[in-house]
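User: As part of a screening pipeline, I want to sanity-check one entry by hand. Below is the sequence and the SMILES for zinc ion. Please return the complex as structure tokens so I can compare it with the automated output.
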Amino acid sequence: MKVILIIYFIFIIKERRKTLGSFTDQKPRYATEKEINFNWGDAPKGKKFRCYLCGYRFKVGDYWRWVYSHRFINFLVCEKCDGEDVVERWISANEEAKERFWWLWERQFEN
Ligand SMILES: [Zn+2]
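Assistant: Here is the complex for your manual check:
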């Protein structure tokens, strides 16, 4: 089952590369109308096209960057939150969320 999921995610990333260009190169980008309305994370109309650290919802022309996290999920970051230590901050934010908001994450981290 896990292998099928991995193949599925590779397929999704390849399809997105075709649609949006290779955003997985982790280079800074500036939001386009297409990206704003794209079904990020399978949510309609760019509902998840937001900074994963501060929650900011990107608008056309905004700086954004896709970041490979090594741990937890890969994420998008805004200009304000981006920086050399963004991955470390992402990991601590996840650990803090698991600790502080355990009731919210209970199901997600059960396995
Ligand atoms: Zn942010």
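Points to compare against the pipeline: The chain has four helices and three strands. The radius of gyration is 15 Å.
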